[in-house]
TrEMBL record:
PANTHER family: DUF4010 DOMAIN-CONTAINING PROTEIN (PTHR39084:SF1), MEMBRANE PROTEIN-RELATED (PTHR39084). Keywords: Membrane, Transmembrane, Transmembrane helix. The chain crosses the membrane at residues 14-34, 46-65, 71-90, 102-135, 186-206, 212-233, 245-264, 276-295, 316-337, 343-365, 377-396, 408-425. The keyword Membrane applies. Residues 18-142 form the MgtC/SapB/SrpB/YhiD N-terminal domain. Residues 191-400 form the DUF4010 domain. InterPro entries: DUF4010, MgtC_SapB_SrpB_YhiD_N. This is Uncharacterized membrane protein (DUF4010 family).
Amino acid sequence: MDEVTQQFIVGNEMAIRLAVALLLGALIGIERGWVARRREAGERIAGVRTHALVGLLGGIAALLADAVTEWAFPLLFLAVAGSALAAYRARMPLSQDYSITGLVGLLLTFCFGAIAVAVDLALATTCAVITAVILDNKREIHGLLNQLQAHEMDAGLKLLLISVVMLPLLPDRAMGPGAALNPYEIWWMVVLVAAISFVGYFAIRVGGPERGILFTSLFAGLSSSTALTLHFARLSRQHQEFSPLLAAGILIACGTMFPRILLYCLVINPALLAPLALPVTAMAMLLYVAALLIWRSHRRAAKVDRPELNQNPLELRMALLFGVLLAVIMLLGHWLQDWLGDAGVYLLAATSGMADVGAVTLSLARLSHGTIAPDTVVLGIVIAAAVNNVIKAGMAATVGNPGLGRRVAVPMAVSLLAGLGLAWGL
């Protein structure tokens, strides 16, 4: 390739990058101009044209910084910032608008133009689109903020604490008796479970009570199907006419637990998906079909308010307890497997399933990387899920009214037998 051709290609690429910088500025300018569309000409400080030109100027500043002097970009950035500050300062007494969102958006537009030319087109485009979306959804964002409660904000900050702060600090190596514990992996699993619970909580929160039992039950399987079972069982005592729908809701929540199991295995050890998919899917579908039949037969029943599954979407104390439980199960799994072989793993799964399916699923999925055979892990996970559903069926039968107990226990038993039979056959 001769020098002329090479220069042509480079020049063509730079022209494209400058065009993208201009278009990204125009994108943000369109959003800003639409917001101020009712103002008279000249009242807008920066509209479509200004933002488009500022994006182009950012791209040119990046070119000048590379070809002429490294001071070109900071000097032009300060010039844009100074001009914008002067314009906003002059306009402020008339508009009584003290928001600096428009100023920040203009400066970001300059930076996006520079990124498009000097760094990466995809990165600049992504940032510009996200910025436009944020600017365009002022009312929705403020509405969500007004609806946010103190304990929910606290939960979000705690989730960030255990994920982006604590997780990177933990050693990522095998430790403890028999090298069975990896602090980083254990805490990463805690973050995974906490994040799913957090998302499940806000799915219910956003859906609202008008969605009724169906919506609540579907997403409760992501956070706490046991809590929902207990609440619906108590509710059936107070409102016996709702018992069929409450039973269907319990079955839906318990069925949603199984996709969560598959998600855990997908993240920890994807090799378990193939042997685990059939028994887990069969158990889930049997519960869903039973719930659908009950629901269709009693669809005229009224809705009830969603249950308060958790006053706080994420308790750090509970996350720590889960980490301890996970470590204990991993140690017991290592020792029982050495002592009793596969029978020890099944005993561990049965006893752990009485309290929590997530912990034993994550533990066995991790141990399947080398110390336990995949077919043993699959049967152990199914045993844990079956035992957990037996416990919830017992709660429905003892806490709820007799009709609720019968409607829940029969599908649970069928699902249990089918899952164990398929897992044993594999």
